[in-house]
Amino acid sequence: MTGRAIVLEVKNGSCTVVTADGEFRKLKIRGDYRPGQEITLPEARRRVNRLALLAASLTLFLAATALWRVMMPPAIAAYVTLELDSAVELAVDGDNVVRGVRLLEGGGQDLAAGLDLTGMPLDQAVEKIVTEAVGKNIITEDNSVVLSTVTPVKDPDPSGLDSLVRKTVESSLKSRGIDGRVLMGRASPEIREKAGSQGFPTGRYMLYLDAAKTGEPVDPEDFKKKKITSIEKDRKIKVRENLRVETGDQREPDRDEEKQRVQSDRGGPQVLHERPDRQGDFEKDRAWKPGEEEKRREEDSRKDRDKKENDWKRGRENGLKSTVAAWGRDRINAVRDELLRFPGRKKGNHDEN
Amino acid sequence: MLPVIELDEKLSLIRNGDSKAREDFIESHRHFIARAAVKVCGRSLEWDRDDELSIGLAAFNEAIDRFDENRGVPFPAFARLIIKSRITDFLRRQHRHSAHSCGSLDDNVQEYSALEISLARDRYLEEEAAREREEEVAEFSRLIGQFGISFDDLVKSSPRHRDTRASLQEIARRLAGDEELFTQLMTTGKLPVAALSRMSGASVKTVERGRRYIIAIALIWRFCEDFLHLCTFIKPPGKGSRSA
Asked: By CB distance 3.0 to 4.6 Å, which of A187, A334, B48, B221 could disulfide with B176?
């Protein structure tokens, strides 16, 4: 944009001018100018402020990112079920924020009806559900088993989800004076789909599968409708036989468990975990001890090693004994003397002679 | 009083043949004409006694007809130049002029063609206008220097944003038009910040921050007659009364 200006001062290759709209400016000039001279301002070069450009770019990027996040549906990282008499499934994203709520068969309407859980952090949502369940007497002192499953969608092992749910449920129950049990399960997407198609909440379907594996007749309706405590009582042995119980959250999985997990990921048998301090009487006799297999293996290998070593020693001694017996002591000594007559000793021998 | 803003409209009206408007316009500029004539003669003049004032009136009327905005010289400055030229010619003819450096356009007129005279007149006006502007800027620099303000200071304190500049110009316009506040500024050398803030509605901080700019612009507009070129060149934020 060009304009007119009056030169006010000429100094050191620059001049101070005042423009028609009253702006005082300093311009670099070439040529002969006098104060009072009216000049045409040069075409204003747009000065690119790099910092402003950077800030604008950053703002644009952030805005685009925010818009993208708003416009695009959030990616679901895992599904978490909370199963009491009623069941509800929460779809959570990678930041453990609830992005969807699904009421499952078994009276889920009662559990989460009227709760606005979408957009809430998972732990808060779980706490809210537990509070609601306690308030509606769905969780009581007599009926305080909470079954929960985690179904990872992308990451096969979403860190911390299981423990987050467990801790939240336990602390919520504890704060309300209820001594509850939390059963955590890890399901594959295939199992979740099958459970849904057959009208099961995921966790109950896993219990059902475990019970069915025993070969004894099981009624699916029992696993759909009955309380978990009732299922445990009715099918005590069968259900518990199929439960793999951990002694702690931090235990490294052994080979068998790893194998079972691989099977689980492929849609095979699932694993349900219960904390050791919540173990029932039936588990005490059969409690799995960590590292037992490894100890046994180490013991076996140690025994093998000792045995081989003993055999070798024994063989060497036997070999020496048999050689002495066959050759006789004198001959052996003669051979030894002969062997000792190496060149360095010949001179000495001659001197002796 | 010289309502600078409405000059273009009035001149346009007069040129379209409105004789009443011409008479009113000349009448309203009697003070301006008298000041210009006094400046040329270097002595006090009285209407009805001194011919220089009558010549000044005639020259002002001539300036109305000859004014061309494309010359880049504002009308008041142009009129003043014509007045100066005509009175100088008169004084020469009367052999009563003092030692003025400015010359007459009509010397030896008979020896030159009309075209040459016209060209010479334009050149004279151009040179005179440039000289006047230079003097004006020097005088302005001296005046703001009395307030401790330099042109570099004005560059630094001049708002870059047009709206901010307009708001400071509005404050300057109010200052230039308020007798009491302007007298206070001239006597104390300090800007009456609080009073201007109350008057304009701008914050004290805004007025204080634009102190040097407000003073400079107010001086130009208050002494418009002395800074004719600057005063007519710098456009005020909106139409309002500004005197020269």
From this structure: B221
